[in-house]
């Protein structure tokens, strides 16, 4: 992982260089400063710090500024997007005494980084997040720790506030979860619910934050040059029919003949998913389990694509929806099988 560290005078540049040496095993740390303070292995801020922050936000997941927090807040403000996308931003006081998470304390990991770095650089971490200070597990941190996606950030914010206020919250999950205390039925006195599910149709009569596991695999076959718009439109209909969240899709699978198919590649990009492709020979090992088409075999060398590729990519998981066809597109939907030790 690449980190950036920004220092604006000779003393803080020297400190940043020492800090990089102490933390070399944690990250590849790039140090930036003004041209007049540049030394060997330190890079130059181009065009002024305020404008250069755009470069930093684009290229780094962690940014540590060694300067007054007021400067940081004013200068990064134009580049803030959302807590799910912003990098972890930390303020290290110019004398190196205090390390303060400024942005993305949970999802970006700024709080965790501050705690971890403090012992190495002899700086005191200053954590201001209420849930951390009160030893409560915030909804966004629960999601991050268990590789879940937040369905709605306002709901998550509300449930975190309720937890901080000691309201009774039940956590219900449609899938097995380790390290989380789950309830199977709502307890008397419960004020809110955290629901771990990839489904969209179940509703509760209480404030609810939905956390979504990315355990859905889409097996897909499509005729050459099918557009992203056509594929996405059909997928959207399939998901709606089966009450599945789009955010639950972690993988798209197909045959390797489709590895460069523009419409599928764009779908994978928009879903932020993994793209798994298999050779005809690999699919042939399991294709007898599924209905086959002579036409598909003539084109691809194997009698089916969507079902066997989804089956393999889901670790031989559960089929939620068998192949559905529309305008040369075939889609199947699978729930990934997790090994017992996972």
From TrEMBL:
Q: Where is the Cobalamin synthesis G N-terminal domain?
A: 55-132
GO biological process: what's one of them? cobalamin biosynthetic process
Q: Name one Pfam family in it.
A: CbiG_N
Q: Which InterPro entries match?
A: CbiG_hydrolase, CbiG_mid, CbiG_N, CobE/GbiG_C, CobE/GbiG_C_sf, GbiG_N_sf
**What top-level branch of life does the organism fall under?**
Bacteria
CobE/GbiG C-terminal domain boundaries: 216-333
The record places domain Cobalamin biosynthesis central region at 138-213
Name this polypeptide is given: Cobalamin biosynthesis protein
Organism of origin is Vallitalea pronyensis
